[in-house]
Specification:
Number of strands: 5
Oligomer: single chain
Number of helices: 12
Helix content: 55-70%
Distance between the termini: 62 Å
Largest sheet: 5 strands, mixed
Shape: elongated
Radius of gyration: 36 Å
Strand order of the largest sheet: 2-3-1-4-5
């Protein structure tokens, strides 16, 4: 039972966090109002079954309210929180006025049903913005004053106390509304800031500080995911591991700042040579890895040669060149670790052969 209720009141996931809280509160209010209305209907039709037009009119009114609340509940459940809240408040504002039509005794001194006019202001203070609550309170108070003004029993009725109660209830509801709306805005602002901070932290955790490429941790996660996807879809997958030849010489002769500049420029260059679906990572030091999902073998070899030859146009010292090793799924490995090791072995072979070349995994 509890789990069913929890499922019923759960708002749509597309709503902002602050609105989700209000939508959940609105769901509880609508459910309670529905159960209350059904109970009243049972009392009228079963426990107090007087066959009078008065009872039938009230029964029709309550049945209409039940259908109305079910519609509001469904809209809220589907993510239309504001529409549902407006329907609820409008229904609670109009229902007491409808009773004036069905029960003329209200105009002859039985003003108790009109107290329910303040219920709509209370609901608005919880569910709707402040300006709507203020307008509704003014409308309800004015209407109540007019009813009392035209009633013939006003001289014998403590109308001042009645209006004072309605006025104070409205004022306190407006004050509560301003506090609630302020708190909700603060919660929304803090939630958005937390989401931004989480996104920034997530981005920082997967990015290399120097080159702004993805880091080794992200590469390992990506390669594992892409290997599984390639196995599932039976699609090709390539991986390039590349290393800067004689990079230590740059640091020794020109300083570490120059070495950092080489790595930054190289990272930007690699990004410009691959597809958007490819993943470029700094593996560590002067080593980079490019994950190439759904790529033909010949295309991957071409891409590696483009990287090797394109480096010469970047204006680096003549001794700065690239060694590249290629491996392919499933020929060179059926899981991410085996594939990465095959690419590393191919890179080692390229370095062993003097560098400035591309080697394929055996």
């Amino acid at each position: 039972m509890i789990s069913a209720l929890a499922w019923l009141i759960e708002p749509a996931p597309t709503l902002p966090e602050a609105e989700r809280r209000q939508a959940k509160l609105l769901a509880w209010v609508l459910l309670f109002t529905l159960f209350f209305s059904i109970a009243i209907l049972i009392i009228i039709l079963v426990l107090n079954p007087l066959n009078t037009p008065f009872h039938f009119n009230y029964a029709d009114l309550i049945i209409g309210l039940i259908i109305y609340m079910i519609l509001a509940f469904v809209l809220n459940r589907r993510g239309y929180y504001k529409v549902s809240a407006i329907l609820l408040v409008a229904g609670s504002a109009l229902a007491p006025r409808a009773s004036l039509v069905f029960d003329t005794s209200i105009l002859h001194g039985d003003f108790v049903p009109l107290l329910y006019l303040t219920f709509s202001v209370l609901l608005s203070s919880i569910l709707l913005p402040s300006f709507i609550t203020i307008l509704l309170a003014a409308f309800q108070f004015t209407g109540l004053s007019l009813v009392l003004f035209f009633s013939t029993v006003t001289p014998t009725f403590n109308w001042f106390s009645f209006l004072a109660y309605a006025f104070l209830t409205s004022v306190f509801s407006i004050l509560a509304n301003s506090i609630i709306q302020g708190d909700l805005k603060q919660i929304q602002s803090q939630t958005q800031q937390l989401a931004r901070n989480a996104a920034i932290m997530r981005e920082q955790s997967i990015r290399d500080d120097l080159t702004c490429l993805y880091n080794r941790r992200f590469m390992v996660e990506t390669l594992k995911r892409e290997t599984l996807r390639a196995a599932r879809k039976q699609t090709p997958l390539g991986i390039i591991m590349l290393d800067v030849d004689h990079f230590k010489q740059v640091n020794d002769t020109q300083g570490h700042a120059a070495g950092d500049a080489v790595l930054q420029k190289l990272g930007t260059f690699i990004l410009g040579q691959v597809r958007q679906s490819d993943v470029v990572c700094r593996y560590g030091g002067d080593e980079f890895v490019v994950v190439l999902p759904e790529i033909a073998r010949e295309t991957a070899i071409e891409r590696a040669e483009q990287l090797r030859l394109g480096l010469k146009s970047l204006g680096f010292p003549p001794f700065v060149k690239l060694s590249l090793g290629l491996a392919f799924y499933p020929e060179n490995g059926r899981d991410d670790e085996a594939l990465l090791k095959s690419a590393d072995d191919a890179l080692y072979e390229a370095k062993h052969d003097g560098g400035d070349c591309v080697r394929l995994a055996a």
